Amino acid sequence: MKKEKSIFVCSECGYHSVKLLGRCPNCGQWNTFIEEFYTSTEKLETKEIIYPKKLSEIVIEETSRIKTGIEEFDRVLGGGIVKKSYILISGEPGVGKSTLLLSVCGNLAKNGYKVLYISGEESESQIKMRSKRLGIDTDMIYLLTSSEINTIKNGLEKIKPDFIIVDSIQTVYNPEIPTIPGSVTQVRENANFFMRYTKNNDCSTFLVGHITKEGIVAGPKILEHIVDAVIYFEGDVRTNLRILRNIKNRFGSTNEIGVFSMEENGLKEIPDASMLFIQDIEKNLPGRTVFPTIEGTRTILVEIEGLVTPTYYGIPRRTVSGVDYNRVSLIIAVLEKKLKLNFNTYDVYVNVGGGLRINEVGSDLAVAASCVSSLKDISPIKNTVLIGEIGLTGEIRGVENINLRLRECERLGIERAIIPEKNKNDISVKNIKTYPVHFLYEALQIALDL
Ligand code: TYD
Ligand code: MG
Hints:
It is built from 10 helices and 23 strands. By secondary structure, it is of the alpha/beta class. It has 3 domains: 2-41; 66-271, P-loop containing nucleotide triphosphate hydrolases (Rossmann fold, 3-Layer(aba) Sandwich), CATH 3.40.50.300; 275-448, Ribosomal Protein S5, domain 2 (2-Layer Sandwich), CATH 3.30.230. Strand 7, helix 3 (124-133) and strand 8 (141-144) form a beta-alpha-beta unit. Helix 7 crosses helix 8. The radius of gyration is 26 Å and the shape is globular. The structure holds thymidine-5'-diphosphate and magnesium ion.
């Protein structure tokens, strides 16, 4: 029998090697190499000859956007689906990717678009049942429950859809490639097929890509390079709250989020998420402060919780969720050095309420105040937000979008805000008392009434 030529591929980044390596020299990940049987795919026939063009000759194609009517989804995409776009939706199993996309299909079909829903995961009746649950009743959605690429190609030829959903790319299978579905080569080749189809035909495609807690079978990184936009659907599957987040977007900004709640009959949009993560703004408890974070164009108030308890065994623990771990270490170091507070015999826990992740340093002051508040067991003054980045010298640095933050706080009835002195002259809100501060100790004096 003819022996197949094998190659080792990094499942994270797609790096090829003739030998099995422990660590990928390209992305630095450990134990990600898997053996694959290699067949050249460069035998793709060229349909047309394309010559280089002058940049000045190129006419920009109008990027009209198609609204899905699900506003939280449209916002994350940058205002709707761009024609001929190729989008990856990733998320853990059970988070609601199929539910979201089927709802999107329902709305698109209502507006007269033809949709082909390709599912290699569920049976026709399972999808029909879900569509009934979501109240979708249309003859513009076509189902294809096959994962074999030639069957899919025939389906595409026959239907010529405006929108394609591939649920999921890990199940799509090309029999000419001698590896199992979900392997790096299969995923990459099939994803490339859908990319070519999308760009050559007047349609847009959504790929569903699974991630598992243990790591994905075929790394999402490979897919991320191929597609135009990458959207993550996040949320603890034990709760109802779901967040749609844009990680990459060739057609718009990447910092928008969409907020949903998973209900009995589908995903419900939560357009006003400002107070969603706050339990009770009026109650002031030791170890809890409020920070207005910016997510895209929206302000969301979050609770930053700090718990400081004596260390009983050896090295003090630092447990952080929702903010950057290194940032918390830095804040504790500044508190020790500049305020002469002693954290080295205490465990420190920092958490952002509601499971949101904050990716900005403006929350430093709130983190510091929560930790000191817990350490000293003093409640911070109520109805107050803290905004500011902490420098290594203990100085408070200015933040961006101060008015966007304060306007939302004003709307929600917040009375006081401790803000960086640097932002003082930009403030245009009237109904909030602001306390501009230069240094960390000033901020803590006001917040904790020291
Ligand atoms: P699903 O879309 O199948 O998730 P994924 O495609 O990401 O794996 O959704 C899975 C969960 O959502 C499932 O546990 C049931 C729940 N669900 C609802 O709560 N309400 C609904 O209307 C639907 C369709 C699903
Ligand atoms: Mg699914």
